[in-house]
Amino acid sequence: xxxxxxxxxxxxxxxxxxxxxxxxxxxxxxxxxxxxxxxxxxxxxxxxxxxxxxxxxxxxxxxxxxxxxxxxxxxxxxxxxxxxxxxxxxxxxxxxxxxxxxxxxxxxxxxxxxxxxxxxxxxxxxxxxxxxxxxxxxxx
Length: 140
What we know:
Elements: H1 2-12, E1 16-22, H2 27-42, E2 46-52, H3 58-63, E3 70-75, E4 78-84, H4 88-102, H5 113-135
Parallel strand pairs: 1-2
Antiparallel strand pairs: 1-3, 3-4
């Protein structure tokens, strides 16, 4: 009884995804990929996907990726944030902020809770984006 109910609740929780767009010819992508394992091990609330633009050239076009490396953070297929380039400390900061925002939130199937959350998140994230823009000027 309890295990089934818990599994149903956990399955109704939206998952966070990070799509990592890479290209084999780009040395920056090689550097980013080398650090991605460490980042993914720190951020267990995310599922990470590597998309090689050389192998799947339509994927970057579909997602509007113009430069690699690029990271797109999604929830239920909805883009939450985007990060381009090798400043992986800034990427981790962004992941931490999204993760912190999601912790403790439960979405029940068949309700408008996710839509309400998305609206609230977008409003709050406008403030985060201004903060990120200022941080992106910092060299690491």
